[in-house]
# Entry
Amino acid sequence: MENNLWEKLRRSLAIVDKNIRIYYSKGPVIIFGLLMPFFLFLAFYIGRNEPIEMLIPGLLGMTAFFTATSVGPAIVPWEARAKTLERLISSPVSLWTIFVGDVLSSFVFGILVSAFPVAAILLIGVGIANLLLLCFGLVLSTFCFASFSILLSAYPPTDNPATVMMLSSMIKFPLVFISGIFIPIGELPVWGKTIAAISPLTYFTDLARYSIQGTSYYPVALDILALILFTVAFLFVAIKIHEHTILKRL
Amino acid sequence: MLTGVVKPDKGAASIFGYDILKQGLKTRQLMGIVPEMANAYVDLSAWNNLMLIGALYGVSKKQRKERADSLLKKFELHERRSYLVKGFSKGMKQRLLLCMALISEPQILFLDEPTSGLDVESQRVMKDTIREYNANGTTVFLTTHNMDEANQLCDRIAIINHGKIAAIDSPERLKVQSSGLQSIEISFDNPVNTGELLMIKGVEKVAKMGDKLKLYVDETSPVVEALVDYARSKGLKIITLNTLAPTLEDVFLKICVSKTCEREVR
# Structure
C-alpha cells in the first residue's frame, strides 16, 4: 500500500522513468526546451559588447526555466488524449504521487540540460565567485520551475497539448523579459522592479549574478526564501486545481 | 465508478470491506483493470508498460520481472516484449492490457468489454484466462453487451437498464424467472385443435410452426405431463417433444422492454 513516504516516492520515481522515456524526445520539448532558449540567448548576445560574466546569469536562468517547464505543462493533456490518464488515476497512487513524479521528471531534465552551460562556463575559465551557491541556486530554482510547469497545465482542463503549450508560452515568454535576464534588475525603472518581483526567475538570475559577479539586487537569503515560497505555492496550488479538474479531462 | 475514474454523486460502495471513496487507494490496490479502450503507453515497450504498472502497484522489482516474464510467455507476447506497443495489433494490445491487469495479482479483476473486436484466438485466450483466474479465487467483474459471453462466463449477472440495475441473479435463474419465455415444441402424428391446448393450465400461447406447435408456458414440467395425458386421451402419438429455455438475450429484452414500458406508463 502507498502508506509511507518512501513508497510514495518509489511510485513517483516510476512516473519519472515513464515520463523520461516517453516525453523528453518529443518535438515540442526539443523546440521549446532546448532550441528556443539557445536562439533567444544568441539573439541577445550577438552584437552586444557586454562581458560574458554579465550574460551568464541570464543564460543559466533561461536554460533552467525553459527546460524545466518544457514538458511539464503538456504531460497531463497528452495522457488525457491517449487515455493513459485514466489508467494512472485508476491505479493505487494519489494525485500527489503522480504530480510529484511529473515535477521530478521536469527537474531531472532541467538539471541535466543546465549542467551543460555550467560545465562550459567552467571550461572556458569564467570566474565564479561562489560555485557552491550557484549549484544550490540552480537545483532550487529548477525544482521551482518544474513545480511551475504543472501549474501551467492545471487550467483549462483540456486534452489538447497544443492548447496548453500555446497558453504556457504566453506566460513563459513575458516572464523572461521581466526577470532581469536581459537587463539587471537594478537597472530597471521602478515599475519594472515591481513587476520583476512577481517572477520566480528574477530571484534565480539575481542569485546567479551574486554567485558569479559577487553583486546582487536582493539579499541572497531573500532570493533563496522567495524561491522556496514560490515552489511550495506552485506545488500546492497546482495540485489543488488538478484535483478539481482532472476528472473533467477523461 | 468502482475503479475511481468517475466520482459518484451519491450512494456508497465498498470492495472487500473498503469504502471506495474513503479508502480509494486500498480498493484500487486490490484491483486489476482491463478497460474497453486500449490504454497501454504506446511509446513504451510491452516490457516497460508492465514494469511501470507493477511499480505503481508497489510490486517489488524482482517479482515484477518474474511475473512479467511469465505473463508475457503465457499470452504469447514474450518475443515482442521489447517492441513499442504502437506497433501491436488490437488483439496483442488487449492481451498486454490483461498482463498489465494481472501483474499485481489482483483480488478483483475489472474487465470492460474484454473480447470486443478481437479475433477468435484472442477471444479464446481472454475467456480461458477469465475462467482460470476465477477458478483460482479472483473475483471477476465483467461488463459486456455480449449475452453469450455473459452466459458462458458469469456466475451472477446484473442487467442494467438506463443506469439502474433492472435484475440481478444467476444466468439460469434469470432465464427461469422470466415467465412466459420458456416454451415446449411438440408435434403429433395427427393434427390437433390448438384451442384445446390453450385450455391446458400453464399454457400462455400456442403458435403453429410448420408441422410443430410451440407452446409458451410458465413452467415446463406440469405442462409436459398434461400434454402426455392429452395425447393419450385423444389417441395421439407424440412424434417430437422438446423443452426450450429462453436465451439470456430474450431475458434482457423482456426486462428492458418491460422497464421502459413502466417508465412510459408513469
Notes: The interface with chain A takes residues 3-7, 25-26, 28-29, 31, 33, 35, 37, 39-44, 48, 51-53, 55-58 of chain B (CB under 8 Å).
